[in-house]
Structures are given as C-alpha cells and as structure tokens.
Description:
- By secondary structure, the chain is α/β, with parallel strands linked by helices.
- The protein contains 13 helices and 19 strands.
- The protein has helices at residues 20-42, 56-71, 94-113, 129-138, 154-163, 209-213, 221-233, 259-267, 287-295, 312-317, 324-337, 356-369, 396-419; strands at residues 47-52, 75-76, 84-89, 118-123, 144-146, 168-170, 191-195, 197-198, 217-218, 238-242, 274-278, 302-304, 342-349, 373-378, 425-433, 440-445, 450-454, 463-472, 475-480.
- The strands form five sheets. The chain has a six-stranded parallel β-sheet with strand order 2-1-3-4-5-6, with helices on both faces. It has a five-stranded mixed barrel with strand order 15-16-17-19-18. The protein has a three-stranded parallel β-sheet with strand order 7-10-11, with helices on both faces.
- α8 (259-267) packs parallel to α9, α11 packs parallel to α12 (356-369) and α12 (356-369) packs parallel to α13 (396-419).
- It is globular, with a radius of gyration of 23 Å.
- The structure holds 5'-deoxyadenosine (5AD) and iron/sulfur cluster (SF4).
- 5'-deoxyadenosine binds next to β13.
Amino acid sequence: MHREIDLKNINLNLEPPEEETERQYYFIKKASGYVAELADRLGRRPTCCVTTFGCQMNARDSEKLAGILESVGYEITEDENADFVIYNTCTVRDNANQKVYGRLGVLNGYKKKNPEMKIALCGCMMQEKTVIEKIKTSYKFVDLVFGTHNIFKFAELLTAVYESEGMITDIWSDTDKIVEDLPVERKHSFKSGINIMFGCNNFCSYCIVPYVRGRERSREPKDIIMEVERLVADGVVEIMLLGQNVNSYGKNLENPITFAELLKEVEKIEGLERIRFMTSHPKDLSDELIEVIKNSKKICRHLHLPLQSGSTRILKAMNRCYTKEKYIELAEKIRREIPDMAITTDIIVGFPGETAEDVDETIDVIRRVRFDNAFTFIYSRRTGTPAAAMEGQVPEAEVKKGFDRVLRTVQEVAAGQISQYRGQSVEVLVEGINENDSSMVTGRLSNNILVHFKGSESLIGRLVRVRLDECRGFYYIGTVE
Ligand code: 5AD
Ligand code: SF4
C-alpha cells in the first residue's frame, strides 16, 4: 500500500520540477510510459525483484524501492529471474560483499536469456570506490548503480536507464536532503519500520557505516508523527523507529527534541499498539528514556544494546565511549527499573589486539548481564576505517577459538533467560503462517521472542493472548487462550 499519486495532472512536455518530491512523481509518470512499452513488447506485465542484504534500515529502503517499481507498473516477485532486479547491498562485513558478487554471476546468466532484463545495484556497498571500480570492469552487464544518499532519485534513475545505453552510475558522497512522501510498498500489512534519522556520527573504529551512510540527520517530529498516523490508518499496529543511533535523535534539529520526547508523542497515536526501536548506543541511553519506557503501555519490552566487547581496553580502541563497568551498570539499572525488559546485543570477536583475556571479559559481561540473545560477529577488516590500519590483527585460528567460546556462552545464557517464561500467558502479535506447519501461526512477544501455535490466516496482524507451553531453545510452542 502507498499513497495514491495523481499522475494525470503531470505534464511530461514541461521540464521536470525542481522540488524533489514533485520531481520524482514526474519521473514516475515518465518511467511508467517506458514500462508500458516494455509490457507491450513482452505481451505481459513486467516483473521485478528487490533483494535486501543487511539491516532493518536497508529493509525499509527496499520497501521504498519496491514502492517506486510498483508505481511505474512492475509486478513484484520473489524470483530473481525477473525483468528488473535490484540488489540493495550491505558492506558492514566483507562476507556481505562477497555474497553480492557471487549472486551477480547468476543474474548474468538470467540476463543472457532475457535481453530486456535490467540489473541495478544500490545501498551501502556502492558507497565504496573500490567496489564501483570492480563493477565497472568485471560486471559490465549491470545497468544502474547508485548509493545510499540518492535513493529518493530512484524513479529518475530508472527513467535514465530506459533512455540510454550502458551502465549508469550516480554515487553521492553525502547529502543533507531528506525527501518525504514517496511511494512505499510495505512487506507486512500490520507492521512497519520508519526512519527517524539517517547516518551516524559515532565513528566506532571498526565500522564503515559513518563513511557509507554519511552524517547524522534527524527527520522532523511532525513528519514522523504524520507518517505513523497514516500507517495506523492503513492497518499498521506495530512500528519500529529506525536509526543507527536512535538515542541521539533530534539533537541536530532546529528545535531540538530528545528521543524520549519523540516516543511520548508517538505513544499518543490512537490505534497504534506496539512501538519498537533500533539501535541504541549505550553511551547515549538516558534516564529520561528508561523512565518513558517504564511508563509506556506501547513500547515493547525489548532493548537492543550493542556491547561489542566486554574489555574496557578494547572498547577504548573501538572508540565506544563507555567502559565494561559503565555498560554493566546501565544494564543493571534497566533490569532494576523494567524487570520484564529483554536485553539483546551485538558482539565482535577478533578486533585488532584482542587477547584471550579480553574475550574472558566479554564472556564475563554476557554472564553478568544475562543477555536474552546476542548476535556474535567475527571482526571484518573494512578498508578506510581506523581499525583496519591498527597493529595486532588477530590470526584466524585465534579468532575462531574466541568466537566459539563467546557463542557457547551466549547460547547457554540466552537459553536460561528464554526458558523462564514457561507457563506464562502473554500478548502476541501474529505475524504469519508457520513456515513448516500450515496449521500453525507464528507470533511475536513484546520481548521479541517467537511463539508458534495452532491458528489460521485470519489471525495475522492481530494481538492475541497465548499460553507459553513448551520452550524449544530460542522459541516457544503455545496455545491460544
Ligand atoms: N566487523 C564485524 N562486525 C561489525 N559490525 C560492525 N562493523 C563490523 C566489522 N567491521 C557489527 C557490530 C554492529 C553490527 C550491526 O555489526 O556488532 O553492531
Ligand atoms: Fe545497514 Fe550498515 Fe549494512 Fe548499511 S552497512 S546495510 S547501514 S548494517
């Protein structure tokens, strides 16, 4: 679903408008003409596929890409053997990049059989110069490449693809623009992500995000509220407010506002049942925010609070701006104030200079905080980041040993945390039919745990009460009450 666009009043004989939203509507109309011609040649509606790598921010961007593609006349499919395929890429770790190169080879095979096929690449990976050089020399069959800062121009770039031969590349190094009100094709009818800010100013020494996503920019609260209201009117009951570091939301606005204040405004929206947010940086998590969550009926009992390392020495080298003790203190405060809050985290193993003793410190924090879940990553050296140039890059075998130790601890601690809910009656938002058993549905607890129980399609998008009967590792089997 997206806003209806009145394309009838747009005159393509005039020059494209300057104002960005209107300008993109102009190009949506123009591209629609080319897609209609393509449909005539093919004798059917052309298909398109949007493939997402990476995080929630990228997933939201992909909904925007899909919104444009649908508006210009494509039919969305999950099959990459389509008439238009776009990869929305991630570059936070090198394995994400390698996956893209591998799959591009497969796309080339499809294109040889379908000469009308167009292939596009966008997202974080495209902000890296070396990647662009490689694509230009070794992947010449790609039709369109753009980055993270000009995604709002997709309709215009799509038009250019149909008007010219050869690869089009348009990469910006940064932007201060936030373009509102373009079409979005949501993946789920009942829940949605919403960008509240873009970019990141933290410069953690291992992380490429500040280089590929640019400086921090917050959206105006009124625009965010309006978007949530529209979504709720359209059937959404759960939203996730998205930003690289939501705790610093609003600081750079003309009329500054805190993230906690924004949450209070969002809470007031009638019909909205659940509020989530991602991601929090421990250094910016305020007492005000804890208080607002504590008093809220809608904010979910789940906080994703990346630790990265439990060693104060490594945290300093990572430029994380907190110590082991400060993190534990914060987690204890949250558990004390909001006892039913699940805390999950991200951990990196193998940062330059990390020793077995540093890994011990990380393991100590995992045990003391009792994380409800954790994503554990092997450190990936990202060109251009300060950590890539640091001495003491850890040999692979050492990293593997530390990684296995951390993973085992996480699994043990998380299993203990999750099992404590057995027998409870909880509110669940039903998200879909169970993938393995069509007589069952899958729902999510406020604390982000999944539960599977007998139910039908009619429950999707509804909040129901479920008894948690049986804990199976990371999820539950339950019964509707
Ligand atoms: N290597 C490994 N993991 C990384 N992350 C970010 N950069 C790197 C890197 N260079 C992880 C962090 C972050 C998550 C999104 O990805 O843990 O929180
Ligand atoms: Fe998301 Fe970062 Fe990956 Fe970009 S590089 S998709 S912002 S995790």
